[in-house]
Write a structure and sequence with these properties.
The chain is of the alpha+beta class. It has two domains: 3-40 and 77-86 and 139-206, Sulfate adenylyltransferase, CATH 3.10.400.10; 92-129, no CATH class. The chain has four helices and ten strands, in the order E-H-E-E-E-E-E-E-E-H-E-H-H-E. It has helices at 10-17, 116-124, 158-163, 171-186, and strands at 3-7, 23-27, 41-46, 56-61, 67-73, 85-89, 92-94, 106-108, 142-152, 198-206. Strands 1, 2, 3, 4, 5, 6, 9 and 10 form an eight-stranded mixed sheet that branches. A two-stranded antiparallel ribbon has the order 7-8.
């Protein structure tokens, strides 16, 4: 199975490493026009059983979250589907061969708090490189997609705030922290919290070393 890249910000990489983050929301661009507000949809993939046209269909879920057999064509389709293997791109820096420490060829910004990578980077003057430029061989985190659905951003259920990596005993504060980060990443592009965009919701599990 071909692996697909996915980008995560440094705080979210840290949350994945800690086991706190098992879901991510990504804006649907352009925003779909045929979906119903206050309705969730499950993404099953291309369905030739409907009319054989090869378009991508999503299935509306009822109020109990169960399939309704009500299908709607949608563009663009999700970038990732159930079962896909994703390799995570994160902010990184390669070590020169003479500076490899404990067999590690790369430093990762998410590890700065661990001490070793920060000390090595400062000592040798390495600069962080944007995640978009990370090559596959530098990847250390792989994920498997376990569910895909569509929601409005503001309809995020309470349990998903924690699955997004924001855990706080005071729930409104956790949700606020999630929304602040969302705006930091998306508001300038026109998809801030107040615009309440449709998003693809990707649930995933981390693949441990030695697993496929």
């Amino acid at each position: 199975m071909k692996e697909k890249p996915i980008l995560f910000s440094t705080p979210m990489v840290r949350a994945i490493l800690d086991g706190r983050k098992t879901v991510t929301r990504r804006v649907i661009k352009p925003q779909p026009s045929l979906l119903r507000d206050n309705t969730k949809y499950r993404c099953d993939g291309f369905s030739d059983e409907i009319d054989g046209d090869g378009r991508y269909y999503v299935e509306r879920l009822d109020d109990n979250g169960e399939p309704s057999e009500d299908y709607i064509s949608i563009e663009p389709p999700p970038r990732y589907i159930y079962g896909d293997i994703l390799w995570v791109r994160e902010t990184w820096s390669p070590f020169r061969p003479e500076h490899i420490i404990d067999g590690k060829q790369y430093a990762y910004k998410a590890d700065e708090l661990s001490g070793d990578s920060r000390a090595a980077r400062i000592a040798y003057g390495y600069k962080w490189k944007p995640s978009i430029f990370m090559p596959r061989e530098a990847c250390r985190i792989r994920l498997r997609v376990t569910d895909v659905r569509i929601e409005r951003l503001q309809e995020i259920p309470g349990e998903d705030i924690a699955k997004e990596g924001f855990i706080n005993p005071i729930f409104p504060k956790a949700k606020y922290e999630f929304m602040v980060l969302w705006d930091k990443l998306n508001e300038k592009r026109g998809y801030g919290v107040n615009s309440n965009p449709y998003v693809y919701v990707y649930e995933f599990e981390r693949i441990k070393e030695g697993m496929s």
